[in-house]
Structure formats: structure tokens, C-alpha cells
Amino acid sequence: MELDVVELSRLQFAMTALYHFLFVPLTLGLSVIVAIMETVYVMTARPIWRQMTKFWGTLFGINFVLGVATGITMEFQFGMNWSYYSHYVGDIFGAPLAIEGLMAFFLEATFVGLFFFGWDKLTRVQHLVVAWLVAIGSNFSALWILIANGWMQNPVGAEFNPDTMRMEMTSFFEVMFNEVAQAKFVHTVSAGYVTAAVFVLGVSAWYMLKGRHMELARRSATVAASFGLAAALSVVVLGDESGYSASHTQKMKLAAIEAMWETHDAPAPFTAIGFPDQEARETHYAVEIPWVMGLIGTRSLTREIPGINDLVATAEDRIRSGIQAYDALMMIRALRDATPTPVREKFETHSGDLGFAFLLKRYVDDPRNATEEQIEQTAWDTVPTVWPLFWAFRIMVGLGFAFIAVMAYFFWRSSFRGQTYPRWALRLAVMIIPAPWIAAELGWFVAEYGRQPWTVDGVLPTVLSVSHLSVQDLLLTIAGFAAFYSTLFVIEMGLMLKYIRKGPFQDVEETEKWNARHEQRLRASIGTGNGNGFAAAAPPAE
Q: Which family does it belong to (predicted)?
């Protein structure tokens, strides 16, 4: 990769975004799991559920704090590294970010404090409401962030104003209910739920392998398996919705993910495995599953999914149309209020393709002076690098189906085998703890890298979005961020491991007394013949 301002700015933002996204999925899912556990506590009044709520809530709190620190840094980068992007689309992009800060983040942050310090100040029901407000606030934050990001993928509800040289919002309703944003939100949130479920299951499995905190571990594993199975199934279903949305909003991204060079007769096959060759523009040793891609992408057996070669030809036509828009724009900028009506009409006719003319600025200052070779090269620039998208998507999908299998197995053991688990299954649950983060990071990579060469798809090229910085500035800040984030990562892992090893340390005496009384009642009930015959304690792991 060439060390220029654009690529270094992309590297820096990718580094901070991917690092921040280490915390987001666990925050989303763990907030809901903790609220579920407290709901059971309020309904049953059993201290073990209060102890579980506090224990997993502590791990949620550690993760939440680190997520906030990295998220704030990432948002500041829009002004630092991407100032022209912020100027060009700030009226649209800034609105959901502002709402996220004023509504969702303040809600979440306020009630996080009440959650941790309000146990002895609030009633059970009041504290339960607080727990659910924390969970709702966490998910609201994700909603508004993904509305902003979804607009970058599918810029609806806005138009370019040639007099101000900026994008301006025309419909907040369209921005908010953008189909890409809604599909990304439910898919991302479900992935966060899976991440938290795998985390809780893995830590609980580790306790059971060690023979520690068995009551908490078995109950937590049951909650995680039930919640995780529903979430894992949702991820697949909602991921399919994202694929369908991409088939008509981001056709090039979908074609690149599938390494679909040519347009197939409907319904298109799904390439399960293969080796994309961008230079030869073909996929070697492709193993195709008939009809599947057509069903996923179009929900029909008759509609085609365009291949990369056809999409490049379409891009070339849009570049030529964009040059017409650029020519009219330059006349409007020169003549201002004296601009003839035909010129403005010409701009309105071609304005939807203006962004494609801006792509030419990578090769020529004035797109109107572009050669045929430059136009053709620019059309091919609209194709992202195929092989990393192809493999990242397939690894992500493979992990998604693996989570379904794991959660289904543990749900079965929890529900029909008395919460007993073979030691091999417990070891597997511990080993797969990192897997949801790998899947989530790959999903984020597919979404963002697949949009290139655009910052805002079809509107603003990445090459024009950066600030006027030097390579030295960026290298220095990248080194600083790497050092700072590495320190935060060590702190995060140290605190999480410390409290996992420590285990549930709150309400221990109260919980043990209640369990002892409960066992006595069970023995007395069994002794008089009124019990159900179950032992007081579940059998150990197999």
C-alpha cells in the first residue's frame, strides 16, 4: 500500500473503528442478558439471580467504559482526518450522530450509574427498570450510529446543492428509515447478542470445568444457550435481508462478495468456494450451488444479478453522464444567479452521476479533460479488491452457522439433560469465545471495504474526503493511537480476566444461606413423599 494521505487516513480510521468494534457487540448483548437475569430475580426473589446480575453486570461495566473511550476518539476523526467529508455531508451525517449523543448515549450513561450504585437506593422493580433502560440505551446508540453509516451505504433523503457545494437533507424520514440502515441495525444487534451469549457460555463453561460457582455457571449457561440460539438464528435470517438489500442498493459490493464477473442467467448460483483472480477477471476452481444466490439476492427465480463486467460498463456510462453534470456545475459556480435555465436543467438531469465524475480527479484535475483511457480506468476503479471480500464473507457465514450448532447443542443439554455437559463440549465453549469477535470484525470489513472507492456510495469518493494533512502527521498519530489502544486493550483484558477469576463476590453469604434453606426444604419434601424426586443439586459435568 502506498503511503499517501488517503491510504494512511483510511488505515487510521479502520484501526480505530475495528478496535472500537471489539467492545460494541459485547455491550449490546450483555446489557440485554443482564436485564433478563435481573427480570428473573425480580420474578423469583432468588438471590442467585441477583448475584448473577451483579457479576455479569460488572463485566458489562468494564467493557462499556472502554467502548466509550474508543468511540469518542473515532467520532473526532471525522473532523481531524475527514474534514472535507464532514463539510460535504455534515448536514445529513451529523444529525443521527447528534441524536445518538443527546438521546441514546446520555440515556445509557445516566442509567449505567444508577444500575451500579442504586442497588440499595431503589426498589427491585425500580432497579429492573433501570437495567432495561441501560439495555435500551445501548441498542438505541447502535441504531443511530447505523442510521448514519447506512446513509453512507445508500444516500437517500438528500440532494446536492450546486450553490453551496454541499449535500443537504431533503427528508429525515427517508434517512431514518433507510432500508440499508434498518437491515444493518437488526443484523448488527443480533450479532452482538450472539457475541454476548458465546462469552457468557464460555466463561460459565470454564467455571464448570474448574468445579467453581456451579449454581451461577449452570444457570448462566442456560440463559446464554437459550438467548444465543434465538440470536444466532436471527443473524442468519437478518443477514439474508442485508444481502437482498444490497442487490438493488449496492450491486457492485454484492458482485464483488460473490466474485461474480459475468451476469448469470436467473437464478444465479452461489459460489461456495473458489479463488478470485482480479487480473484475469475470473474465479478459479469455483464450486457453485445452483439457484441459491438468485434466491438470496432477488427473492425470485427470474431476476438477474448483474456481474462485475456489466456493472463496470454501467459505471463508465455514469462517469460520462457525471462529466456533463460537472460541466454544468462549473458554469453555475461561475455565473451564480445569472446561470441560464438550460444549464441548471442540464445539471438536474445529470446530477445523480456527479460523484462518478469526481472519481476522475484521481487522475486529472478537471474531469472534462479526461481521456478515454482515464475514463475506462476509473470505471474499473469502482470494483473493490475482490478476494478479501470473497473470503471474509464466507468465513463470517461459516462461523454464523457454527454458532447455531453450538447454541442448539447447549440448549438441548440445558433443557433435556439436566444442565449436564460433556467436558469436551465445555472445552469447546471456552475455545470459541473469540470466534464471534472474528465474525463481527469480518462483517464490518465486508460492509466498509466493499463500499470502496466511495466514502458515500455513488456521491463522494474516498480520495476527495480527507483533510489536508501530511504523511508525517498521520504516521505520528497512527503510532500514538496504536500505543494508546494497545494500553487500553491490556487494561481491558487484565480487568476482565481478574474479575472472571475472582468470580461472583457480591451477595455470596445471602445466596449461600438461601441455597442451604432451599436444599433443606427439598430434602424435607422428598422425605415426606411430596417432592418431585429431583436432587437438590444438579449432577456434575460429564
A: Belongs to the cytochrome ubiquinol oxidase subunit 1 family.
Residue 532's pLDDT band (cuts 50, 70, 90): very low
Sign of the Cα torsion 482, 483, 486, 491 reads: negative
Quick check: 77 pLDDT over 90? no
Identify the CA nearest to 51 among candidates 216, 205, 207.
Answer: 216
Give the Cβ contact number of residue 320 at 10 Å: 16
Owner of C-alpha cell 494533512 = 469
* Residue 23 one-letter amino acid: F
470 φ, ψ (degrees, to nearest 5): -100, 160
Residue 213 φ/ψ region, left for φ over 0, alpha for ψ in the -120 to 50 degree band, beta for the rest: left
For 279-298, letters b (16+ CB in 10 Å) and e give eebebeeeebeeeebbbbbb
Supply the pTM of this predicted model. Answer: 0.91
Cα atoms in the Cβ-side hemisphere of radius 13 Å centred on 170: 9
In sequence order, what are the residues at sequence separation of 6 or more whose Cβ sits closer than 8 angstroms to the Cβ of residue 374? Answer: 360, 363, 364
Bridge partners (DSSP) of residue 460 are: 456
DSSP annotation of 453: T
Cβ–Cβ < 8 Å for 440, 235: no
DSSP state, residue 339: -
The owner of cell 448460483 is 269
What's the pLDDT tens digit per position in 103-146?
777 777 788 989 999 998 999 999 999 999 999 988 888 999 99
If DSSP codes are grouped into helix, strand and coil, which group holds residue 169?
strand
Cβ atoms of 518 and 536 within 8 Å: the answer is: yes
Q: What is the mean pLDDT of residues 182-193?
A: 94
